[in-house]
Specification:
Elements (H helix, E strand, L loop, with lengths): L11 E7 L4 E3 L19 E8 L2 E4 L3 H10 L16 E13 L14 E5 L10 E8 L2 E2 L4 E7 L4 E7 L5 E5 L5 E11 L2 H7 L3 E11 L1
Parallel strand pairs: 5-13
Antiparallel strand pairs: 1-2, 1-3, 3-5, 4-5, 6-7, 7-8, 7-11, 9-10, 9-12, 12-13
C-alpha cells in the first residue's frame, strides 16, 4: 500500500482540495511529515489531488524493467526496447484521496489531468454495493486498461487486477474497515526530442485513488 514520506516541494506540480463548490490550492513545507497536512473546514465530500513533476529512474537491470511491464499488463512494450541497454524512465504521478465526513455533497470530478481515476459514485453509502470509477487519459476515457487494486484490513493485505470496459469504467465490491488503493500505469516510448531533453527511453504516467471504508 506504499510507505509514508515527507513533503519535498520540487516533486510537486499541483496540490489541491476539491469539493462540489470550489477548488482550494494547498501549500506545504519541505520536511512536513506526513507529507500532506491540512485542516478541512467544510463538511461533506472532498477529493485531495496531487500531481508530481517528472522524476527520473534508471532500472537496476533489463529483467527488472520486464518484470514491471508484465506486472502492469504492458507486455507490448517489451518488443520496443533495446535489451543491450538498461532502460531509463521519466515518470509522473497523479494521486487522489477521497475524504468525507458523511454521505452528503458527492460530486463527479471533471477530467483535467493527463492521467487520472475519477470516482463515479461514493463508496461510503451502504446502498452502493459496488464502487464505480472511470480512467481518463488527457480527458478521454481509457478503455480495456488494467487497474490494480491493493487493499488491507487490520490483519491482511490483498491484491487483484481488473480491466476497465470500453468506456474506461471499472467497478469493485468494497468491504467495511478496509483501505483501498487503485492504481493504473500508462507507459510510452520517448520520441527523439524527448530523449534529448529528458535523457530517458520511456515516459510513464501513474494514476491512483485511495478510499478508506
Amino acid at each position: 500500500m506504499g510507505s509514508p514520506f515527507g513533503f519535498y516541494s520540487p516533486n510537486k506540480k499541483s496540490l489541491y482540495l476539491e469539493n462540489r463548490n470550489k477548488v482550494t490550492q494547498l501549500s506545504q513545507r519541505d520536511g512536513d511529515f506526513p507529507a500532506i497536512q491540512m485542516l478541512i473546514s467544510e463538511q461533506g465530500f472532498h477529493v485531495l489531488n496531487y500531481e508530481t513533476n517528472n522524476e527520473f529512474l534508471k532500472y537496476d537491470s533489463v529483467e527488472k524493467f520486464e518484470d514491471f511491464v508484465k506486472e502492469q499488463g504492458l507486455q507490448s512494450a517489451i518488443n520496443k526496447f533495446n535489451r543491450n541497454k538498461i532502460p531509463t524512465e521519466n515518470y509522473r504521478r497523479f494521486a487522489k484521496v477521497l475524504i468525507t465526513d458523511g454521505n452528503k455533497g458527492f460530486f463527479i470530478q471533471k477530467p483535467k489531468l493527463d492521467f487520472e481515476i475519477i470516482a463515479l459514485n461514493t463508496p461510503y453509502e451502504l446502498k452502493n454495493s459496488f464502487f464505480k470509477f472511470q480512467l481518463f487519459e488527457k480527458k478521454k476515457p481509457l478503455g480495456n486498461w488494467q487497474i490494480t487494486i491493493f487493499s488491507k484490513d487490520e490483519n491482511n493485505t490483498y491484491k487483484e487486477k481488473i480491466k476497465t470496459n470500453s468506456n474506461g469504467v471499472g467497478k469493485i465490491r468494497t468491504i467495511e474497515n478496509r483501505t483501498y488503493l487503485l492504481s493504473a500505469v500508462k507507459l510510452d516510448k520517448a520520441n527523439y526530442l524527448q530523449k534529448l531533453k529528458f535523457k530517458s527511453d520511456w515516459f510513464s504516467l501513474w494514476a491512483s485513488l485511495v478510499i478508506k471504508k
